[in-house]
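yo, dTTP/UTP pyrophosphatase is done. seq:
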Amino acid sequence: MTQLVLASSSPRRKDLLNQVNIPFETRKQHVDESNMTCRSPRAYVQALAEKKGRSVPFSVDDEVIMSADTIVSFEGNILGKPANRREAFEMLSMLSGNVHQVYTGVMIRSVEQETVFVEKTTVEFWPLSKDEINDYLDSEEPFDKAGGYGIQSKGSIFVKEIRGDYYNIVGLPLSRVVRSLRAYGVYPDLAQPEQKVTGN
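structure:
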């Protein structure tokens, strides 16, 4: 049976694969993101997904390795994970009352083939007051999320409208991923209860 390896430590990506009952194991990737030079958000996230995917070697020939990276872009500027409270406040202040884009790059590879794609979702925020932003920062939720917010949890109250795949904002364009994995012999088992992740 084909074994899917998720080259990511993101708990949100693990949850999404478990949601559609795809068995997988995780394997940590080690990538230096400081030397990325792509200016376009789409090119950047694609290049980073590929770099992460190629950093994880195959253990056996029938493995399928999947890597992904998600970024937020506002007016062409890439917003990663905020390093501190000040950065998180600045990011959310920029997004307040405005439209931004979320890009996720995905790479799927086996010893025989590769698939790479980028999914974009457009998000509009309600205008946010300083008190709203500060209350959210007190939750400490923003600090491990691109753009400084999590749509799947408390940050959901900021979102006025989305255009595109909701799950792409969470961290993985799930339906496109599932369809892409079919070419590699990896299928969700929708008839069975939710699986538990294996591996580290």
